[in-house]
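Can't paste images in this forum, so I'm doing it all in text. The chain is below; anyone willing to post the predicted structure tokens underneath?
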Amino acid sequence: MSVYREELLLRSKDVDLHRRLRTSRLFELLQEASIRHTEQLGMGRDKTLDKGILWVVGLQRAEIARMPVYDEQIVLKSWPGRTMHFFFPRYYQIETLAGEPLVRASAMWMLVDSATRKIVNPESYGVVIEGEMTGEEISLPSAPPRLELRESVPFRVPYSYVDLNGHMNNTRFFDLAEDCIPASLEGRPLRLIQTEYLSEAVCGAQMQVRWGQKDGVYFLLGEAEKPVFRMRLDYVTD
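Text version of the structure:
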């Protein structure tokens, strides 16, 4: 079984004003680990990007025992689950050097045609990733349950949020969410994250972001002509 492993030291660029790992940076680390491991498994850009297909993430889930902090050394692990037709499950774990689990996560990845933006059959491009189960997996992500939405704010996708796939990078939705809601600014620790990406948001796209909360649980919905993303963030309340 191939498990990607990397040791990291958290720097100032990785953390927020509370000196905890920034939520968007957490998912950047997971995304980067996914790319590096996929390349190690022989499924790098020559199989995908250079042939006009893109890796995109559709669903994410993270369970947080404790967010790592500034100047802390951590271990990041990642491994693929068993491919499900056109979908590639992937699992992650962040732990201390002593092996204490801090964050456990899962994601559902897929391949899309860069021209048509439609999901493609990976076997047609020779993209095959063997997956196994280690026993450390959390549940695969699913669509987050919805709450009543009482607040709303307009948002326009800036140039700096767009990645090489030509749309707003998935990690930037966490910056958007935390800029909208008060819990992160107040320093409330996160315990659960669920996200679903429904359509692309290109540079300059306008969307309306609506949200609501109950007992420390926030639900956010971004919509343009159609839904763009859904997100649930569960915070410690006391």
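The chain has two domains: 4-125, 151-235. The mean pLDDT is 95.
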